[in-house]
Amino acid sequence: QVQLQESGGGSVQAGGSLRLSCAASGYPYRNYYMAWFRQTPGKEREGVANISPDGGATYLTTSVKGRFTISRDNAKNTLYLQMYSLKPEDTAMYHCAAAPIWTTRPGDYNYWGQGTQVTVSS
């Protein structure tokens, strides 16, 4: 049974930091491309960051460059999103997802976690 379980969300003030984790099981994690998406009510799901299976290639959407870092530990089957200098506009439900190819399209992702809420107050 495939499972992606996010953790690490919470409420912080603007300028604060959080580290999200995503524990994966039930599929060959180290063979999959991983990503973080975020979504707020009434808006489309937005891609935040991507990482290749070996961690050698990463992508960050423009709005988070210089503030967020994506990484993975294949020995622990865990994906991370380190977030610094958080802004109120970063407030969203953050989901991790797995895909067999390099892609930013949500529809290409096979597996999704339930999400962890990040709330940033001004």
Notes on the protein architecture:
By secondary structure, the protein is mainly beta. Helix content is 0%, strand content 50%. The protein contains no helices and 11 strands. Strand 4 and strand 5 (46-51) form a beta hairpin.
Largest sheet: 7 strands, mixed
| Low-pLDDT regions | none
Mean pLDDT equals 97
Order of helices and strands: EEEEEEEEEEE
Helix content: under 10%
Report the radius of gyration as a whole number of Å: 13 Å
**Helix-strand makeup class:** mainly beta
Query: Count of helices?
Result: 0
SS strand fraction: over 45%
For the record, give the distance between the C-alpha atoms at the N and C termini, rounded to a whole number: 40 Å
What overall form do the CA principal axes indicate? globular
Q: How many strand elements?
A: 11
Question: Quick summary of this structure?
Answer:
The protein is mainly beta and 122 residues long. The chain has strands at 3-7, 10-13, 18-25, 33-39, 46-51, 58-60, 68-73, 78-83, 92-99, 111-112, 116-121. The strands form two sheets. Strands 2, 4, 5, 6, 9, 10 and 11 form a seven-stranded mixed β-sheet that branches. A four-stranded antiparallel β-sheet has the order 1-3-8-7, with no helix packed on it.
